[in-house]
Amino acid sequence: MSRVGRLPVTVPAGVSVAIDGLAVQVKGPKGSLQRTFAPGVTVELEGAQVKVTRANDEPAVRALHGTTRALIHNMVTGVSAGFTKVLEVDGVGYRANMDGKNLVLNVGYSHPVVVEPATGISFEVDEKTRQVKVNGSDVEQVGQVAADIRKIRPPEPYKGKGIHYLGEKIRRKAGKSGKGGKGKK
Question: Which of 14, 16, 92, 145 has the greatest number of beta carbons closer than 10 A?
């Protein structure tokens, strides 16, 4: 039996869960999320806990058991506390700032790059530390928007300039080795 799938999802106060067959809708202070799950697993609301059980032990159904529970847990966490990804902008002259709800990045191109937030996503910029926070209730959407922003100027391996996640290790290269190579004498 799946160790993750067996754990019940505790529903905090202020969050409501509605289950309609394979569809689960979660509403909370940070918004509402809805998702339809594959057949083979059943989702039940018992008091203040959501329990996920599976019909049989086929490998495909076993794989869905823990995944379904984890997705429901992320939905409940997202509408109650929300998710945040933090990106850092490193480089001389590189900066990020806000223009209304839009994120404006000056990262070495001849023009500023404007990123419009998707529905359910908001940006925060700390200009002193050059950090960009991507906030939202859907963990998949927050991660995808953060990855799209990082893709605008990924960190390069020689000086580490670019946009990277907070705490991300950038593999550095040595660069040119200097005099004494194979060449003219």
Answer: 145
Other C-beta atoms lying within 10 Å of the C-beta of residue 115: 18
What's the pLDDT score for residue 177? 76
Residue 69: predicted pLDDT: 93
DSSP the chain: --HHHHSPEE--TT-EEEEETTEEEEEETTEEEEEE--TTEEEEEETTEEEEEES---HHHHHHHHHHHHHHHHHHHHHHT-EEEEEEEESTT-EEEEETTEEEEESSSSSPEEEPPPTTEEEEEETTTTEEEEEES-HHHHHHHHHHHHHHSPPPTTT--EEEETTPPPPP------S-SSS--
Using an 8 Å Cβ cutoff, are 42 and 53 in contact?
yes
Domains (range + CATH), the chain: 3-80 (3.90.930.12), 83-165 (3.90.930.12)
Find out whether 19 and 11 touch, Cβ atoms under 8 Å: no
Residue pLDDT, tens place only, 20-78: 988 999 999 999 999 999 888 999 999 899 999 998 989 889 889 999 999 999 999 99
